[in-house]
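> example.struct
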């Protein structure tokens, strides 16, 4: 399995587009990919959600925070440089059922985090630590390929989720798939010291290494170019982001 460390904070449309390009590459040749990546500030909504019901669009625009739609399901999340994304693209036979993939890949992440003295557990699509949410996961399946991706909160966000996500406010009424706000925690809060992106990637890759043989890799020029095209045509498009 290719191991890609793509951790420099990037334009959110590029971050999402690279995920989809790598996912499509697995559909074509079956070679799995584990990618770590970090987005600049953005609200990312699930494929089956209504943006206006999930996001304070006026507040997001005022703060200069973009709002984009991903290809997987699940609820709305806030991406920022203190939030690490972990994506696994594999043949579906290596992922198992939806519940098995959440359990298997989430368990590998938790095993990796144990190397940072973090005791985390998988609960469905969530990663919990001390009863608080450390991260959440979602999936999408196309043909014989599966994309599982999860977030890990390394440090607390610089702003309250109440400022952006309507699910954190009273009177929330979802249009489509609803978000499930919970009490959150981060690696920094759990460990009691600053935790870096690099040491988190190293720990989680060791956990994933218990499932797959990992080979350090980078995105090819063709993959990078394809992601730029997709970011412009799809993730930068109001037609895609506002659709549902």
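> example.seq
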């Amino acid at each position: 399995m290719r191991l890609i460390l793509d951790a420099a904070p990037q334009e959110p449309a590029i971050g999402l587009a690279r995920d989809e390009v790598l996912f499509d590459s697995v559909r074509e040749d079956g070679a799995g990919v584990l990618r770590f990546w970090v987005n600049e500030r953005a609200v990312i909504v699930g494929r089956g959600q209504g943006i206006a019901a999930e996001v304070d669009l006026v507040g997001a625009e005022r703060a200069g925070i973009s709002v984009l739609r991903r290809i997987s399901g699940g609820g709305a999340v806030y991406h920022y440089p203190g939030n690490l994304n972990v994506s696994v693209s594999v043949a579906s036979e290596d992922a198992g059922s939806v519940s098995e993939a959440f359990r298997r890949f989430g368990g590998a992440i938790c095993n990796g985090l144990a190397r940072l003295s973090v005791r985390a557990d998988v609960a469905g699509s969530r990663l919990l630590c001390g009863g608080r949410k450390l991260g959440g996961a979602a999936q999408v399946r196309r043909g014989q390929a599966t994309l599982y991706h999860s977030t890990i909160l390394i440090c607390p966000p610089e702003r309250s989720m109440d400022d952006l996500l309507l699910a954190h406010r009273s009177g929330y009424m979802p249009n489509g798939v609803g978000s499930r706000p919970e009490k959150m925690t981060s690696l920094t809060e759990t460990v009691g010291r600053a935790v870096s992106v690099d040491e988190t990637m190293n720990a989680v890759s060791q956990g994933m290494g218990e499932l797959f043989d990992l080979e350090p890799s980078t995105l090819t020029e063709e993959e990078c170019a394809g992601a730029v095209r997709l970011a412009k045509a799809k993730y930068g498009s109001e037609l895609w982001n506002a659709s549902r």
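> remarks
The mean pLDDT is 95.
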